[in-house]
Amino acid sequence: MxxxxxxxxxxxxxxxxxxxxxxxxSSEAEWLHIDVMDGVFVPNISFGFPVLNAIRRHTGKVCDxxxxxxxxxxxxxxxxxxxxxxxxxxxxxxxxxxxxxxxIKKSGAKAGVAINPATPxxxxxxxxxxxxxxxxxxxxxxxxxxxxxxxxxxxVRECKSMITAxxxxxxxxxxxxxxxxxxxxxxxxxxxxxxxxxxxxGTPDPAQTIHQLKNxxx
Length: 218
What we know:
Blueprint: E1 4-7, H1 17-25, E2 31-37, H2 49-58, E3 62-68, H3 76-82, E4 86-90, H4 97-107, E5 110-115, E6 133-137, H5 152-166, E7 171-175, H6 183-189, E8 193-196, H7 198-201, H8 206-214
Parallel strand pairs: 1-8, 2-3, 3-4, 4-5, 5-6, 6-7, 7-8
């Protein structure tokens, strides 16, 4: 199985963002992962609508938007209008998950739910049929370049079992410390989408690294 690679634009060179997006366009990456942080839900601030708009103008690939923000329900339409194809909200940031998932789908975007490392997979059982992408965080969100938390691999396995039992087509995405050293084990555990930031942009040949990640399955 060839996995979907979603390079994290947070690790791109923002002085040359168009160049880096065009590099991703010519690579085997199917998705571009766009981290939106508000300094409240996570202890960091990244970017919002203007940057997403700029990226959207320069790519036809899937814009995989990860909202690490409080009250994400207020901004679903704006992120969709700015070019988001996948809108992922955090389980920990919302109260009425079911209704927000319906709202995302109604906007025309795919609905994603992210869970932090300490959040059990089982909290998504009742709504797994509404979720297009489960994003398993393998670091505590907020900063790039963190070390992979090993027990995330077991969470991927648990998530895969839950999806299979439900007869759902939900994809499993993994974000945080993902690279060539652990891609194969994550794919074997059931991961469908790998988010890689420094592991891609920190290499001499990012396009080649993306190719290697896509072909990491054992």
